[in-house]
Specification:
Layout lengths: L6 H8 L2 H5 L27 H16 L22 H17 L10 H4 L2 H16 L9 H15 L2 H14 L9 H5 L18 E2 L4 E2 L3
């Protein structure tokens, strides 16, 4: 599910103590790029744009047109298919798990977003599975762990971006009634709702994300 919200609405959501305490916010992957207002210029469409959009639309349509896998003798109960990690994906994922664990302790680069960081490996695996199925609807196992980790680290970088923390803090203090403002902003930063501009490209052979300093290279 992909949702777009205005900053005022996002600020109310991300400072909610109950949602934070339940761990809901750390299960969301958010990004808040700087506004492009004032820098937008008309650009001619690239020749390959139409073809790429049509190809992408066809992939989505093929997936949507697949018959639902239902449980035996059921009309309203799905039968999910297990999608295990390939050996290579499992090895890369285990390395990433160890790296994240090393960085969430006191003084670690991910300490201030520990809530999100604890779930980064899970996010990476889910993203990898989505990318795998997008490429091959009948894939027998997850192959795209590298790209899943790249995306997970992008969202971690978003959460660590100082400019976003400052912007969100100001928004909360100036536009939300004082009775609703949380007293400890660090608690808010741990909710992972603190965004960045994409720094990586999935096609890059070697990717390093500054926030966590973990290489996703092959």
């Amino acid at each position: 599910m992909h949702l777009m919200v205005q900053p005022e609405v996002a600020a109310l959501l991300f400072q909610d103590r109950l949602l934070l305490g339940q761990g809901l916010l750390s299960r969301l992957l958010t990004t808040a790029p700087e506004s492009a207002a004032g820098n937008r210029r008309p650009r001619p469409e690239q020749p390959e744009t139409d073809e790429i959009l049509k190809r992408y639309g066809k992939v989505l349509l093929d997936i949507l047109e697949q018959p639902l896998l239902l449980a035996k003798d059921k009309t309203n109960e799905l039968r999910p298919i297990a999608l295990p990690l390939s050996n290579e994906a499992a090895e890369r994922w285990n390395e990433f798990v160890g790296h994240v664990e090393n960085q969430i302790g006191p003084g670690g680069s991910l300490e201030q977003i520990k809530g999100l960081a604890n779930k980064l490996p899970e996010h990476a695996a889910r993203l990898a599975s989505v990318l795998t199925v997008m490429g091959n609807l009948n894939a027998p196992e997850i192959e795209m762990m590298r790209n899943g980790i790249i995306l997970a680290e992008h969202y971690a970088s978003e959460a660590l971006r100082p400019s976003v923390r400052t912007r969100l803090r100001t928004l909360i203090r100036t536009r939300i009634p004082s009775s609703l403002i949380i007293t400890n902003f660090r608690t808010l930063t741990q909710s992972c709702m603190l965004p960045l501009k994409p720094r990586v490209a999935l096609s890059s052979p070697t990717t390093r994300v500054t926030a966590s300093r973990w290489s996703a290279s092959a």
